[in-house]
């Protein structure tokens, strides 16, 4: 199955928005064995959209269009599609009813612009968009498929995952593809690759290995293709087993489980509770933990102690410690852990204090110096991270490293 | 001047790399009044590159190609270009000498692959790439221009800034382009569009309006083109003024300023301090605030009170309130504000308590019900948000709405 992606929007052409949708779609399509053979970005003009649609549908089995569906006047995509198929737009009552229900919950009513959003080409199969007002549309045409989706990333992702990908898999059965992703944390991409060099060299031709690094964790993905799905699965799992053995506790999970999800399972199974005491990460670690549904089972809350006064008043950090060692120090994060355990009455606490940047660095403590501690009533373990100069990266990197520290602490002590 | 960008690379099609080059180029070209009319991404195959080059050169005055020039992929792109022009590749001695000098500094000598990099189409005007080994190439053809650059972002940026942009400006004296983006929060895209319908209908032909929505805020962008840059700026600013007047305090800023940056300026200018007391947002609002460099000037810290016990113990919420009204209620967020002000000793506090989902909803309080309050020592204002079913979206939406509430509170009371 070949796919051409068309991204619609003047804001992309003038560089106001980076097109991250196409990369995400490319990844997802690649996972189901579909080959993206081209991506076209065009502006909001009817002629450009029409031209792109004609070229793409001549070249690929599937055309996936994103953007150009907002309720405002810069929306002409639907008309272009209707013209392309030689059909009319007609009012789609079920879509309007869905919108009415949505707005009723908000105590509002749809506007005229929303009525226009319900005008759809007569040959459209409507893909219900539970994340927004513009529906997705699926068209079949001479054995090929054309799909139109909104450009808002979370709406597009919802439609791709729940509607488009399953339909494509059904319509275009391909060679079996099997992936197994091992989630690792604690080492960088090149160290992991070094450890796996021998295994990688010995991989059979139909199985490939890819490293997908991120801030504080690396996904190691095995992908195989073959005609026999059952045999393929066995082959890939065998290699996954070898990698597991080689990497040991660097592996925390599989198949895109996040560190925060994994930690959630560990804590719930052991009936442990957790709190965070955060300075430079400013609530980001708490946000990661609470982005997991059901986290209230093990997460009680946090103290974001950005100012030193809060470190003293709420976490009981000794002013003398702050004076002698500074807020970014082993001594301070140790006291933040003790204080958080006492105040929050949890089994475990993790504390982070560092210099996120871009200002605030010094020769002894440059930007990116981040101290972390995790502990319980009897033991506390510390780690000093030396990160880079980018503020947001430092916060995210520290967040993932902190979660991994808690994970290893739990596995060691419980 | 119209420009078509061609991005070459399999790694972009499979989503391993996000194409940020095109957005950067779009921004730069826009600034000199060039209109990017399309972006095509193709794989590393000769046929695909040739097809894209033919289409692009037929459509636009200028074709800018990036990628496909690495030492391994080298042959393909350059051969395609040479074939396209009907010329041969020949060894370019000055480029080789530059490479030799470059490697001499590193105590090394060029490899055979680097010799291949010096084989260039005979009609190429060489653009010296001081950031890497692959040279840029400039071609003129029937009055139009084709440029080939490496895909490595800092090499491409160097060539664009120092070679391509100045040459384009000289070759194509262009119409001026002027943008003004107004940042709004508090209403959705369609309400904003409704309010601006009359203004939009009356816009002169050379000025266009676009709506760029996100969770909790909408960017409204005016874009104009004309020969006279000074007159154009006045025209666009005049329309921006009308929109400003019409939308009033829905507008919080301009030119892509975020809500958290805007709020930071407001608080710093008024010497106010802020804290957050978060339940369902779990630290996300604190994270937004602290993602701004220098936020320690006005942000003291937060209490993430996920468990009811923490709402009682740390924020002093009355157990009777929780019993009678529930944690997701006006009464609770009001008490969270009072408690946070007392504990954190700040001028302002914002509190959020809601049902992020996917579980925990009830008929009276469905998933997406989120109460918020912002207050100071004397006044507290509340708002009930009815959001949707997606956990992460609810958290992000509530976060932006909360920041906007604080912004409006500050503007009203200080």
TrEMBL record, chains A, B:
Which interval of the chain is the signal sequence?
none
One Pfam family recorded for the sequence? CinA
Q: Give the highest taxon in the source lineage.
A: Bacteria
**Domain named MoaB/Mog: which ranges?**
4-171
Identify the HAMAP family for this entry.
CinA_B
Q: Which NCBIfam families match?
A: cinA_nterm, molyb_syn, PncC_domain, PRK00549.1
The entry assigns this protein to a family as follows:
Belongs to the CinA family.
Please give the name of this protein.
CinA-like protein
């Amino acid at each position: 199955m070949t796919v051409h992606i068309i991204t619609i929007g003047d804001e992309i052409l003038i560089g106001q928005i980076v097109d991250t949708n196409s990369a995400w779609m490319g990844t997802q399509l690649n996972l189901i064995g579909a080959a993206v053979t081209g991506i076209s970005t065009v502006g909001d003009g009817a002629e450009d959209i029409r031209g792109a649609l004609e070229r793409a549908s001549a070249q690929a089995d599937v055309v996936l269009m994103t953007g150009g569906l907002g309720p405002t006047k810069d929306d002409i995509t639907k008309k272009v599609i209707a013209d392309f198929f030689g059909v009319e737009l007609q009012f789609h009552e079920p879509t309007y009813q869905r919108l009415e229900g949505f707005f009723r919950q908000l105590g509002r009513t749809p506007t005229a612009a929303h009525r226009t959003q319900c005008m759809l080409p007569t040959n459209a199969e409507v893909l219900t968009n539970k994340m927004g007002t513009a529906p997705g549309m699926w068209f079949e045409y001479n054995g090929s498929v054309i799909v139109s989706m909104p450009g808002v990333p979370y709406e597009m992702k919802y439609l791709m995952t729940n509607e488009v990908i399953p339909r494509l898999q059904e319509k275009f059965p391909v060679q079996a593809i099997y992936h197994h992703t091992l989630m690792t944390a604690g080492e960088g991409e090149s160290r992991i690759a070094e450890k796996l060099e021998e295994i990688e060299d010995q991989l059979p031709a139909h199985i490939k290995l890819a490293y997908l690094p991120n801030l504080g964790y690396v996904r190691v993905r095995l992908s195989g293709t073959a005609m026999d799905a059952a045999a393929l699965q066995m082959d890939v799992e065998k290699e996954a087993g070898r990698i597991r053995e080689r990497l040991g506790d660097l592996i925390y999970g599989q198949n895109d489980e996040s560190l925060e999800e994994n930690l959630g399972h560990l804590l719930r199974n052991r009936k442990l509770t957790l709190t965070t005491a955060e300075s430079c990460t400013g609530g980001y670690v708490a946000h990661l933990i609470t982005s997991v549904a059901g986290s209230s089972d093990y997460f009680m809350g946090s103290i974001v102690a950005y100012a030193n006064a809060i470190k003293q008043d709420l976490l009981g950090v000794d002013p003398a410690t702050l004076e002698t060692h500074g807020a970014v120090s082993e001594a301070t994060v140790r006291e933040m852990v003790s204080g958080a355990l006492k105040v929050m009455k949890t089994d475990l606490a993790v504390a982070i204090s560092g210099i996120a940047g871009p200002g605030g660095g010094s020769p002894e403590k440059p930007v990116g110096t981040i101290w972390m501690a995790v502990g319980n009533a009897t033991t506390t373990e510390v780690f000093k991270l030396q990160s880079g100069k980018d503020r947001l990266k430092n916060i995210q990197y520290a967040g993932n490293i902190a979660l991994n520290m808690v994970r290893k602490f739990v596995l060691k002590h419980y």
